[in-house]
Amino acid sequence: MTRQTAPAAPRKRDRDTSTRALLNAGIEAFADYGYDAATTRDIAARAGLNEQLITRYFGGKAGLLVAIYEDFLVRQHDVQVYAAAAPASGVQAEIEAFLLAKHAHFRETHKLVLVLVPRLLIDAETREQIDMALLERATTILTERLIALQRQGLIRADVDVVAMGDSIAFQSFGASFIAPAVRGTPESYIIAQLKGFARVVARGVAPDQPACHNPS
Asked: If DSSP codes are grouped into helix, strand and coil, which group holds residue 137?
């Protein structure tokens, strides 16, 4: 009696591979057309996949946009480069390292951020989906390092380092994203401004030096 071989199960496309293909296709489509004009049909066609997978994996186009940006946050400069670097030994160097890492990230994701920011402003669905802890992770790391520097006596005890970290992050967004996007500010000028800002802030939070008294 001849044993019959059971039919082979249909080969399933690896989900990770499909997800990566859709993320890459979404980056291209959003960069080419913006959020509203980019369609899930076009994105799926670029990835060579069924359009329904966008809903299944990401919950729709808004979810795909959020997933793309969060993927950049994990893989690109914002978190990986800054977090991987050892803490600086001084306040100015730490602030400068943060600002330059964020600047590199904004350069890398400029077109994508141009698409994402308006969605965050006008679309509650997009805001609800984004992982704010991930979005703010680099700022959280900066704040933790500023706290450590304060404990070492390099930042005055009366300085609110949490507010300080938030202010530095806002400066980063304004200088590295808004300035080039709206004003076309040259790269060399931005870098100089970021370094100057780090220097000024460090001086402003430095412990007071004991007054020197000249002998009479």
From this structure: helix
